[in-house]
Design goal:
By secondary structure, this protein is mainly alpha-helical. Among the domains are: about 120 residues, Tetrahydropterin Synthase, Chain A, CATH 3.30.479.30; about 40 residues, no CATH class. It is about 75% helix and about 10% strand. Helix 3 packs across helix 5. It has 8 helices and 3 strands, in the order αββααααβααα. The N and C termini lie far apart (about 215 Å).
């Protein structure tokens, strides 16, 4: 009986142990908590509020959860109080809220981030990132700054308006002086223009006279040129007629010369033929006698017979010549 009770108690203990193990929070890859740190006072006693986001991780779950039941508990009991403590200590080093509000804002944020990242790490966990998304200044300070800013803006506007007015008055004065100078320059320019117009008119008249003289000279030159041209044309025409006559005379002479040369050539040919005939006759007296008789016979139509020709042949020739 006692053994069964012991076994039952052991079984119950194991079930409780298993139940507690299953209900134990499992660590996530990264834990993120957004915390508002209030009444963080600077060196001059002005309180600030910081909007801080922490990204951290449980590195050793066994060690971490042996001390804390959950990450939320760790955040509320450890991270927030420690963050506030570290932020107050570091903020006390900055003496003026005005400097944190303006020129030292970035330096202040980086300093708080560095202090929190290095000071919040604990056994079994590590801080991965610290983000300060906003610094909340007291409303009274903001209102005062806004009022001062508005006043400064108004003063700056008045100062700028004064500068504008001064510059405008200066510009008006300069404009008046410039207008006077312009009027003087305009009067001088008008005088110069009138002088230039007078000189231009004189030059124009001289040019007109010169143009008239030039036109007269051009007309005379044209008339002389035309007369010279007509005379040259007449001379050229006479020369042309003379040349044509000379050409005709030359051609006539050439034709006559050609005729003379032709007659002379024919005479020379006839002379050479007669000379050759004379030589032939001198060398052959019988042939010469035959030619003489032939020429005479052609004149009187008497047949010349060679020596030894019969009477019948002579009769036949006579009968042939005489009409029947």
């Amino acid at each position: 009986m006692n053994g069964k009770i012991i076994l039952f108690l052991l079984a119950c203990g194991m079930l409780l142990l298993q139940f507690s193990c299953t209900n134990q929070q499992k660590p996530r890859a990264n834990e993120i908590n957004r915390n508002y740190l209030q009444n963080v006072r600077l060196g001059d006693g002005i309180p600030l509020s910081l909007d801080v986001t922490l990204r951290w991780k449980v590195e050793d779950p066994n060690l971490f959860f042996s001390e804390f039941s959950s990450t939320d508990t760790f955040n509320s009991l450890v991270l927030i109080p420690r963050s506030l403590e570290l932020a107050k200590q570091e903020s006390n080093r900055f003496e003026s809220v005005d400097s944190v509000f303006s020129v030292e804002r970035e330096s202040y944020i980086e300093s708080i981030k560095s202090v929190l990242k290095n000071g919040l790490a604990s056994d079994g966990m590590s801080i991965r990132e610290v983000i300060i998304s906003d610094i909340i200044f007291p409303q009274q300070y903001i209102g005062a700054k806004e009022e001062v800013g508005l006043k400064e803006q108004e003063l700056e506007r008045i100062r700028q308006q004064k500068i504008v007015n001064i510059e405008k008055a200066k510009a008006l004065k300069e404009q008046a002086s410039a207008d006077g100078q312009v009027e003087i320059a305009r009067a001088e320019a008008e005088g110069k223009v009138q002088e230039i117009k007078s000189k231009t008119e004189k030059i124009r008249r001289k040019n007109e006279i010169a143009i008239a003289e030039t036109e007269a000279q051009v007309a005379r030159f044209k008339a002389k040129t035309e007369a010279d041209r007509n005379r040259e044309l007449a001379d050229a025409e006479v020369e042309k007629v003379r040349d044509l006559k000379n050409v005709e005379v030359q051609k006539k002479r050439e034709i006559e010369q050609i005729a003379v040369d032709k007659v002379a050539k024919l005479d020379k040919v006839d002379f050479e033929r007669q000379l050759q005939l004379a030589r032939l006759c001198a060398e052959n007296p019988t042939y010469a006698s035959f030619l003489v008789n032939k020429e005479l016979a052609s004149k009187v139509e008497i047949a010349v017979l060679p020596t030894g020709t019969g009477q019948n042949v002579f009769e036949n020739i006579i009968n042939h010549r005489m009409p029947k």
